[in-house]
Amino acid sequence: MFNSSGIEPTLNKKEDIVSEVLNGTLQLYNSVLVTTSPTAAWNGSCGEQLLDFGRPEKIVIGVMLAVITAVTVMGNTLVVIAVCVVKKLRQPSNYLLVSLAVADLSVAIVVMPFVIVTDLTGGKWLFGDLFCNIFIGMDVMCCTASIMTLCVISVDRYLGITRPLTYPARQNGQLMAKMILGVWLVSASITLPPFCGWAKNVHTAGVCLISQDFGYTIYSTAVAFYIPMLVMLVMYYKIFRAARKSGAKHRFTDLSRRERLETVANEALRMQGLKPPGVAEDCAALSRLLNRERKNISIFKREQKAATTLGVIVGVFAVCWLPFFILSTARPFICGVECSCVPIWLERTLLWLGYANSLMNPFIYAFFNRDLRSTYRDLLRCRYRNINRRLSAVGVHEALKV
């Protein structure tokens, strides 16, 4: 009943259906591989899922980041104005504070606005491939200059405490200018390699990422963070040890000094009715002991203040930047040199935590520096007139209290 001519069409139809199903399955499998493969997803965001924010979330995030940027600009601008306007603050050591403020101010003005726009788009870079290299260069250079200046400030504070007699003689404007120039040249040495062909930054559609080359990553993170942090920790330890020795010596000799002062004072009172030359000599001895006591107390307080200030600076610096640099160092070894497998939300959070260090620096120094606090207060109240006279009067009053 069935001939060959009737069977062949049926078999051909079945073969066509099977081949269509197989082709569809292969296409679906290939599409799944493409969407899940990290390298294939580079067209979007280098293997990362873009964050999808709603309008309320964008408003909240935008306002928060804009406030951080505005406060950073305001605080560092106050530092620059204060040192330039107030004669008492126009000291060579404070030039480092101006360099630090300029670096942090550059981060806030040149870098943060573009990061805010990128974050509000969920992590997508919108400013083109050419500007990507420029942006990464500015970001690396300004942040590195800020970190390196903190390192130089710690060395400056250490030398000022441990060598109070010889260091001020060598501390002049030219020396500070050379140190500041060296800081910015070192920062440029990290910025230039991607422009010279050693390590190329990653910039494809929607992606702007610093070069993930292994050698460049180790070099840049070591020079920009790990070496400065090690130097700051060593300086803090030495200042802390010097302050501790001074404190122990001060407490140990405090009783004997007090007894000698009382003895000389009693002798001076007893000799009041006798020879005037003897009274004069005793009063002179008493004056010398009192001056020596005041000098020792002043040195002790200065060492304690320097140790406390540097301790806070190192602590805040480590909390802000250490997580980001650990992530940056480990990322090429985990994700490879052509991609970032780190979640965008984690990467951006740690980045803004590092930027927060630029916000905190001017307020840390103002907290431990009475003159900066007074100048901030006058500038914010628009009391520009007689700032120098008021600071001089406050300084005389504090000297008389000691």
Automatic annotation (TrEMBL):
The keyword Kinase does not apply. It comes from the Eukaryota. Keywords: Cell membrane, Disulfide bond, G-protein coupled receptor, Glycoprotein, Lipoprotein, Membrane, Palmitate, Receptor, Transducer, Transmembrane, Transmembrane helix. The keyword Disulfide bond applies. Pfam families: 7tm_1. Residues 75-365 form the G-protein coupled receptors family 1 profile domain. Gene3D superfamilies: Rhodopsin 7-helix transmembrane proteins. CDD domains: 7tmA_5-HT7 (cd15329). It is found in: Cell membrane. GO terms for biological process: adenylate cyclase-activating adrenergic receptor signaling pathway; chemical synaptic transmission; circadian rhythm; positive regulation of MAPK cascade; smooth muscle contraction; vasoconstriction. GO terms for cellular component: plasma membrane; synapse. The chain crosses the membrane at residues 59-83, 95-116, 136-155, 175-196, 216-237, 310-330, 350-368. SUPFAM superfamilies: Family A G protein-coupled receptor-like (SSF81321). It is a multi-pass membrane protein. GO terms for molecular function: G protein-coupled serotonin receptor activity. PROSITE patterns: G_PROTEIN_RECEP_F1_1, G_PROTEIN_RECEP_F1_2. InterPro entries: 5HT_7_rcpt, 5HT_rcpt, GPCR_Rhodpsn, GPCR_Rhodpsn_7TM. G-protein coupled receptor for 5-hydroxytryptamine (serotonin), a biogenic hormone that functions as a neurotransmitter, a hormone and a mitogen. Ligand binding causes a conformation change that triggers signaling via guanine nucleotide-binding proteins (G proteins) and modulates the activity of downstream effectors. HTR7 is coupled to G(s) G alpha proteins and mediates activation of adenylate cyclase activity. Belongs to the G-protein coupled receptor 1 family. PANTHER family: ADRENERGIC RECEPTOR-RELATED G-PROTEIN COUPLED RECEPTOR, IP13425P-RELATED. This is 5-hydroxytryptamine receptor 7. It comes from Austrofundulus limnaeus (Annual killifish).
